[in-house]
Amino acid sequence: MKTIPLRKLMREPTMVKKWTKAGQAVSVTDNGEPLWVIHPAEKPVEDEDERRRGIEEVFAEVMREPQSKISLSKIIKDSRR
Fold first, then answer.
1. pLDDT digits 0-9 by tens, 20-74
2. How far apart are CA 62 and CA 41, in angstroms?
């Protein structure tokens, strides 16, 4: 973990950006006292199978809900008035 004073963070934020982009956590201090710990953000899941599986679960949940008594075409027509 890298340590940087608050003043240096304010003057050189790109340095902290480079460290976190490389996967390192950065400790920010103020007058030698720990203030914050900045961690790199987690990257979003890009796996197509996982994304598709999530969509299928949501779709299955929606399909289990009771059917509406009002037709979709009526809802659309009413919204256009």
1. 989 899 999 999 999 999 999 887 766 777 777 788 888 888 888 888 888 888 8
2. 31
How far apart CA 43 and CA 16 sit, in angstroms, is 18
For 67, the token pair is 């059917």
Helix residue ranges, H only, the chain: 6-11, 13-21, 48-64, 72-79
3-state DSSP assignment of residue 30: strand
**Cβ-count burial of 40 within 10 angstroms (0-12 exposed, 13-18 middle, 19+ buried)?**
middle
The pTM for the full model equals 0.52
Give residue 41's Cα distance to chain centre.
Answer: 8
Rounded-to-10 torsion of CA 53, 59, 65, 68 = 180
Q: CA 16, CA 25: separation in Å to the nearest integer?
A: 9
